[in-house]
Amino acid sequence: MQTPAPDAPILFFDSGLGGLTVLGPTRALLPTAPIVYAADYAGLPYGKKSDAELAARVPALLGRLVERYHPRLAVIACNTASTIALAHVRAALDLPIVGTVPAIKPASELTRSGVIGVLGTEATVRQPYVDDLSAKFARDKTVLRHGSPELVTAAESKLRGEPVDPATIARALAGLTDQAGGDAIDVIVLACTHFPLLQDELQAAAGPGVTLIDGAAGIARRIAHLTQGQAWPQTAAPGIAVFTRSDERPPPPLAALTPYGIGRIETI
């Protein structure tokens, strides 16, 4: 690849607004980086889609976005899309691609009880990729999984200023703790980028004896490493948020995105 121009953006891609939890730490490390944040509202929720559908949809949509915005690097800020489509995207696009995978390795290092919970979408928690991570990094641990599509909806609603139903949080956690051995969970991996948006609610319900962990900070460090030595603008310009057009789900108010450095909304 040629050396990118200073105004070449970092492209963040997610099914919805969960990838903002990756954008935030990246902004902290690269404060003047141009940003394009893309949300596939026409395809949300990804956790309900088949592997074959996502393996076709994600590379095609990212290809359109790369042609339109010419990013220096693309981040699939979505665990479901990464675990299913990352290899397909890397084969299709000629630029660096950073994926998002469940933080099972650091969770294995943190747990004292030896029992880890993985809370994600239904599609993520069933992936062989999660089996592989568990076998590689948590072979001597018990890894319990639960898929909660309700939490994705709750996170999207929270960013729109709507209240979070405590029963939704309770059901999601019960999906882990009600399993055999679940009462010993002391670390929960938030294996969906939407879920850290509900960090306060999840932590309050899980209690102080449970540590919640996600991979956003590590992804931000990886982005900074891959772009090390590249030129950036001297000052930060407002980022762009682009949404695939959905009759059921209009883009959120711009005010919900401005804390993340977004200054304009587009639809495709």
Structure description:
By secondary structure, this protein is α/β, with parallel strands linked by helices. It has helices at residues 20-29, 51-69, 79-92, 104-110, 122-125, 128-137, 149-159, 166-177, 199-206, 216-226, 254-257, and strands at 10-14, 35-39, 73-76, 97-98, 115-120, 142-147, 187-190, 211-213, 239-243, 262-267. A six-stranded parallel β-sheet has the order 4-3-1-2-9-10, sandwiched between helices. Helix 3 links the parallel strand 3 (73-76) and strand 4 (97-98). Helix 2 (51-69) packs across helix 3 (79-92). The two termini are 27 Å apart.
What is the overall pLDDT average? 95
Instruction: Provide the succession of SSEs.
Output: EHEHEHEHEHHEHHEHEHEHE
- Classify the secondary structure makeup into a structural class: alpha/beta
How far apart, in Å, are the first and last alpha carbons?
A: 27 Å
Oligomer: single chain
**Strands in their spatial order, largest beta sheet:** 4-3-1-2-9-10
What is the molecular shape?
Answer: globular
By DSSP (H or I, 4+ residues per run), the number of helices equals: 11
How many strands, what sense, and barrel or not for the largest sheet?
A: 6 strands, parallel
